[in-house]
Amino acid sequence: MTITNIHKDTKFDIHPLLKERWSPRTFSNIPVSETEIRSLLEAGRWAPSCNNFQPWRIIWGIKGSDTYERILNVLVEFNQSWAKNAPVLMLGAFKKTNPNGEENFHALHDLGAFSAMLTVQAQHLGIAVHQMAGLKFKDALTEFNFTEDYHVATALALGYYGGEKSDLPENLQKIESPKSERKLQREFAFNGNFSETEGVQRKKQPLN
Ligand SMILES: Cc1cc2nc3c(=O)[nH]c(=O)nc-3n(C[C@H](O)[C@H](O)[C@H](O)COP(=O)(O)O)c2cc1C
Where does the record place the Nitroreductase domain (predicted)? Predict the structure, then answer.
């Protein structure tokens, strides 16, 4: 599966980088260079964050390195089964407190912004990013010397789009395709009061 196979039923015009992005579980075996990884991290570096606290902390490793194996080891078994083929693995952590020692309620949000910026930069390079919540976060904390003031929230598998479905366990081969399902805008965006729209019958509603 390559990026040219994507069909997303977008209702309004969006940039091709966004339209073509998806989260595959197979990757080409073309290596991702350290320079490319640095570009991705740089894109994240310029993400907006609450008070410019930049609470994200990233661990990264290239396949074949000790760090890569240590990241792989803290993923849950399901994610290990496919992420072990990715040329690059990362962990996304955040600092839970602000410089005054108070809880930073927006730190997870800001890690998400970092990951989104990194993902768009990756897409620009033809590199796919598959984020994961399925990791043993307490193990990750100790494995990589974080203190209790940090939370390891996500992992990311990265590599050029490509690879074969046969690289995957059988159960994952069946579901390896871009997701076309999305909520309609009317289900999450309100030009006025919020209203609970879960369960709306989409076919009977206007497109947006
Ligand atoms: C924070 C986060 C956690 C996720 N956790 C996992 C995971 O543990 N394992 C997995 O296979 N995919 C995981 N995903 C991928 C999502 O399932 C995927 O992004 C979603 O189905 C939409 O598909 P798309 O990214 O191809 O558009 C995660 C994505 C995000 C953003």
Answer: 18-72
